[in-house]
Amino acid sequence: MPTLTWLTREADIRLAQKAPYRLLEAVPDLSYGDAQTENMIIQGDNLDALKALLPYYAGRVKCIYIDPPYNTKSAFEHYDDNLEHSKWLSMVYPRLELLREFLSEDGSIWVSIDDNEGHYLKVIMDEIFGRKKFVATNVWQKRYSRENREAIGDVHEYVMIYARDPERFKLTRNKVSLDEKSRKVYKNPNNDPRGPWRGIPMTAQGWRPNQMYSITTPKGKVHLPPEGRCWSTLESEYKKLLEQGRIYFGKDNNSQPNVIRYLSEVEGHVPWTWWSHEEVGHTDESKKESQLLFGKDVTFGTPKPERLLCRIIEIATNPGDIVLDSFLGSGTTCAVAHKMGRRYIGIEMGEHAVTHCVPRLKKVIDGEQGGISKAVNWQGGGGFRFYRLGDAVFDETGKINQNIRFATLAAHVWFCETKTPIGKKAKSPLLGVHNETAYYLLFNGILGDKRPDGGNVLTSKVLKDLPPFEGQKVIYGETTRLGAERLQAEGIIFKQIPYDIKAR
Ligand SMILES: C[S@@+](CC[C@H](N)C(=O)[O-])C[C@H]1O[C@@H](n2cnc3c(N)ncnc32)[C@H](O)[C@@H]1O
Fold first, then answer.
1. Binding-site residues, ligand 1, Cβ < 6 A
2. Which tens digit of pLDDT belongs to each residue from 191-206?
3. pTM for the full model?
4. In the 3-class helix/strand/coil scheme, how is 222-237 assigned residue by residue?
5. Ligand 1 atom having least distance to the Cα of 79
6. How many domains does the chain have?
7. Which of 53, 187, 386, 414 sits 20 to 30 Å CA-CA off 420?
8. Domain of 113, in residue numbers
């Protein structure tokens, strides 16, 4: 497959692998609301933050939305958007590689971008996610007024979508609910007890012999399908609809037949790639939302409108699903996900993680009524935890950092072995069973022995004390006193800490 090359590509495509595993440290003072919530705001470089999250969230995220700097050559107040072209590629490539690992089987990734880097982005996303995983490029009409400063006014951006499994995405994605304007098309002039309805012309393109019958109106006029068209149903189906009172012959009761569709039966529209500002908002709207939240002096330069995120989250997720945004900016994705009852993880490296995202989400929890609040009947509630990046799990020589706790190393070992997240916080040396192999970790006196090396060495006694498993066992420990024959007889593969733990 053709790939994009740039000067530092060879080094850049190894960056994700080389990024260290770091710990996430909770900051209780900046957290708010329900402490049990899984919602996370993380301040730090997303390369490190994503690596830190992988052991817990790989394969669990239903929708990733990112709005990376577009490389517009501008210096915004809160971040610089002026990378040399290949540096932008070098920034985005390893981050996309990590993001791919988070997608669930039915998950999708949505990326906002414009023409500065959009076409290069498409080529690297084809490479990273697979050309066949491409779903669509949506065009978002970001302005409602004409742009007269350029030779050709720029009024749109893109939102590119890739799915881990496009077939599954097609079956599971949601339709777009009708907006006020589309609902108004449905009326009830005859007080039909089935509610508001509209007439859909009963014709289809082409000529099909069994759809070319004649139809007589109640007033006696005979209709045949118009030139070049046929009726859209067979005669038997038409007769059923007529009996059910679902054929409308116009106000005069003498015009061409229409099939009656009730509003109550309409699930919504199949999403399409044209996203007008009327439907999903525009940049003026998002600036106003930002001013309302933060005041005129501290607004954020490039926020997205809440309605845009609402559209994405509505199509891609259901309540309770996890949404991830690793270029969080002023926190729009998390605020919208919160109001829509989704769980979320937001990562932002700038100080605005504290000055914007935290106060915004606090307001949301307190029931803030801007953005999409009224449309989703938001009443407040919930919570989020704030984190910063802490120590690396391994030092430069590959040794385990002294401050690492059992549960942290357990999550790391489990993920390296199984490529799946650990689920619950590990409290036992038996971390779990995957593909008929049990994984154990002897570390930090998990067996209750408080001496520094206590219980970290695999001896006969320690083996006896371990939760039993009939079958293949992988045991991580500092060393073992059991010989090769005994290990084989017991079905044990012994792995030595730290050397056999993948540091990267
Ligand atoms: C275009 S803004 C996102 C705006 C956001 N969608 C909103 O509605 O407010 C891009 C953000 O990505 C952040 N960013 C850029 N590089 C980053 C990195 N390596 N790690 C984390 N955040 C980063 C910038 O600080 C900036 O806030």
1. 45-46, 67, 69, 78-79, 300, 302-304, 327, 329-330, 332, 347-350
2. 899 999 999 999 999 9
3. 0.83
4. EECCCCCEEECCCHHH
5. 25
6. 3
7. 386
8. 9-177+269-391
